[in-house]
Structures are given as structure tokens and as C-alpha cells.
Design goal:
The protein has 8 helices and no strands. By secondary structure, it is mainly alpha-helical. It has a single domain (about 5-195), classed as Clc chloride channel (Orthogonal Bundle), CATH 1.10.3080.10. It holds the Pfam family Voltage_CLC.
């Protein structure tokens, strides 16, 4: 796959939007972490949240797990618009809710999963105006949100290129999208996703 003009322009447009999504994601995790229950609340919180997530997983089974399946399915353009919208809203809420209930869990995989959903959703609309590769839209979204949320643009780009092995086609679009996303997140003075879970000094 050669360098796509559609992906280049898409990357310029989606980068700032990915930055805003990352800002919201980091703030959501900060709030959830700050409200984690203690004492008896630890006994009630996880069952209540997991029951709610389980109920939502009946129509949207992709909510379960760490988000790896979501990334794979978006790369293959397996979701319709309605499902993408629902998962883009519900996956971050389910992850933050689970962490906020007092349960343990990781944040790395749900972050690019959220970005892949954003990229895939935006890409479906973009292709109506300017066709481009579906997988490229998802990868660009995933890398941009990951870079802005982690405050690690180089790591996000390297990871995306390593996983996809498409250096020639995606290098420039990835750099453009990641730059736009990180500039927005830093403009909002957003810390790294992992630093918001550190104990206060």
C-alpha cells in the first residue's frame, strides 16, 4: 500500500479531535481513580459495576476484555456506524467505571481501542468524501489517542508501525495525527494517563 493523500489529510483533521478524546479519557480516569471506594464500599462497588457492564455486554459483547478484540475488528472494518458510536461511548465508561469501583485493571489496551473506534468511525464518514483504507483510519486514530493520553508520541508511532509493518504508507500520516493530538492535550495541560493514578504526594 502506497502513501495515500486521503490518509494525509484525514490525519491532519483527526489529530486534534483525537487529542480532545484523550483529554477527556485522562480526566475520566482521574475522576474514577479519585472516587475509588474504601472499606465496605469495596464489597459493593465491583459487583454493581460488573453487573451493569455485563448487561451492556449482551448487545455489545466487545465491551468485555481489554480492548484487543475491538482494535482487531476495527482494522478489519467489521463494525457499522451505530456499533462504533455505541462502543466509543461505552468502552471508556465501562473501563473507568470498573476501575472506579475499586477493581484492578490496566489502561494501556483500552486507550488505543478507544482511538481505533474514533478513527474507524471518522473514517467511515471520510470515505464518503474521499475513499481511503479502512485499516489506516483505525490505526491513525489509535496511535493519536495513545500518544496524547500517554504523553509519549514517539512510543505511540513506533508501536503502531511495529504492529502494522506499514512504514512506507503510514509514517507521515501517523506523525501528523500524533502531533496534532499531542499539541491539543498539552495545550490543555493534560498529564500522562499513568500519572493520574499515582498517589498524591
Amino acid at each position: 500500500m502506497g502513501l495515500s493523500a486521503s490518509l494525509l489529510v484525514f490525519a491532519l483533521v483527526i489529530g486534534p479531535f483525537a487529542g480532545w478524546v484523550a483529554v477527556g479519557w485522562v480526566r475520566m480516569i482521574r475522576i474514577a481513580h479519585g472516587r475509588r471506594p474504601t472499606g465496605r464500599g469495596l464489597l459493593a462497588g465491583p459487583p454493581l459495576v460488573f453487573t451493569a457492564v455485563g448487561a451492556l455486554a449482551v448487545p455489545y459483547p466487545e465491551l468485555l476484555g481489554n480492548g484487543k478484540d475491538i482494535v482487531q475488528l476495527t482494522l478489519g472494518a467489521q463494525f457499522g456506524v451505530a456499533t462504533l458510536v455505541a462502543l466509543l461511548l461505552l468502552k471508556p465508561l465501562a473501563t473507568a467505571g470498573s476501575l472506579g469501583s475499586g477493581a484492578g485493571g490496566g489502561l494501556f489496551t483500552p486507550t488505543p481501542a478507544t482511538g481505533a473506534l474514533l478513527g474507524s468511525l471518522a473514517g467511515q464518514g471520510w470515505t464518503l468524501l474521499w475513499p481511503g483504507p479502512a485499516a489506516g483510519f483505525a490505526i491513525i486514530g489509535a496511535a493519536a489517542v495513545l500518544a496524547a493520553a500517554m504523553q509519549a508520541p514517539v512510543a505511540a508511532v513506533v508501536l503502531a508501525l511495529e504492529l502494522t509493518r506499514t512504514l512506507d504508507a503510514l509514517m507521515v500520516p501517523l506523525l501528523l495525527a500524533v502531533t496534532g493530538a499531542v499539541l491539543v492535550s498539552r495545550r490543555c495541560d493534560t498529564p500522562s494517563l499513568y500519572s493520574v493514578r499515582l498517589p498524591a504526594q
